[in-house]
Amino acid sequence: MSWLDKLQHQSRQLRHRALDRHVRLGVTGLSGAGKTAFITSLVHQLTQGDSPQNLPFFGVVQQGRYLGGRLAAEQALTIPRFPFEHNLSFLQQQQPQWPPSTTGWSQLSLALRYKAGQGLRSHLQSYSELELDIVDYPGEWLLDLPLLQLDYQQWCEFSWQLFAKPHRQALAAEFKHLLVDTDLTDASESQLQALTDAYKKLLQQFSSTAGTYLNQPGRLLVPGELAGAPMLQLVPLLPEQLAEHTALTSKLTSHYQSYRDYVVKPFYKQHFSQLDRQVVLVDCLSALNAGAAATEELSQALQLIMQSFNYGPSSLLRRLFKPQISKVLFAASKADHVTPEQHQALTLLLQNLLRQPLKQTTYQLAKTEAMALAALSASQTGYIEQSGQKQVCLSGIDSESGNKISLFPGDVPAEVPDDTVFASHKFSFPSFLPLSLAANANLPHIRMDHALQFLLGDKLR
Ligand SMILES: Nc1nc2c(ncn2[C@@H]2O[C@H](COP(=O)(O)OP(=O)(O)OP(=O)(O)O)[C@@H](O)[C@H]2O)c(=O)[nH]1
Ligand SMILES: [Mg+2]
């Protein structure tokens, strides 16, 4: 993009922001929380699924004022585009699959056209337009944000406290031995690379173990365009190894600082410091399946992440110069993995899980709502007869066997269970493959219309 195009693009955005015609929506969630599925569904609902039957609680659609959404024609050429059509094609194929896990950042801009329902615009203009920007990125990168608050020594201490926990200790033992045997005076390329390879292997083992969320630095797992960059030679030494200033400690400290300054800070500035609205997706059910330590680590990860955002009411000046998130939707994702009467408990569980994390943030300055939703419902609710009693159940395609199953997945606890409950009860909520869709069908969802109403309803009045 030439500097002139860029300038025009920026000034158009500024004009729209001044007129309150521009919203930047942040979809936040750890890896696997459901960000890509959420964005794909949201874009589909806004561009192709905008009927009152499909979105009954989305006011602008319900009132017949929504004229349609389209993907913006003039997205800046330098910004990777969210692969909406590609993701959709996975869901629409004969044997539908989930879109793949995300490996880089991308953005999509939508133009939402509607008839203003009130004010001068409703009389003067035949239609109004709201520009919506949504960004997607690998969940692993989100976990780098807390590094902005830590120096290298603090990060090493944090990491080794984490690796001492029961669900991580055994896996971390081999890497710990490697560090103990490491010559700290040797900061050669080959030593750094050998340590990095070993740490990367450990992170990969962690990340394929259900219920380990805090795997840092995220770029070691998903390097994106930084693959091979020297600052990715980064491992947490044992805290006691930092007592002395050595060649290796100073090299790693400098790589850590570069990583924070040249990777994490720009990523935060570009994608997160400008948000107006935020969805925080949390996969509570997978954490319950993985047990007590996993659920605790999920809460810890959310706490660290939530501290990185600015919350507060939006005003004209703030919108222009220091945007703050004025509305946050906390959503328990994949609600189609439980029967509908469990949704309320799932919402309460999410609120309970977030209570501690949110204590230390300024999020109270924003409007918030919590709900259980499914961006893409992959199950159907039915009933089975059991001992003469009607019992609610779900049916769907089991993601492991590929077979159709019907089951009652179990009750969702309305609070984070304590260790004794985890010790005596194994949660095993299912996971489903997407259901086949008829040609041109809407994407089935649970409460995406409520989510849209909360996030965008006031901007489409
Ligand atoms: N049943 C059901 N499963 C879902 C839903 N959303 C996501 N999933 C499941 O969760 C997995 C991860 O979803 P993604 O949207 O890729 O998660 P993500 O947050 O983008 O993950 P990263 O790209 O790795 O950061 C999917 O492959 C599905 O198995 C949903 O609404 N319903
Ligand atoms: Mg993704």
UniProtKB/TrEMBL annotation:
<dbReference type="Pfam" id="PF04317">
    <property type="entry name" value="DUF463"/>
</dbReference>
<dbReference type="InterPro" id="IPR007413">
    <property type="entry name" value="YcjX-like"/>
</dbReference>
<protein>
    <recommendedName>
        <fullName>ATPase</fullName>
    </recommendedName>
</protein>
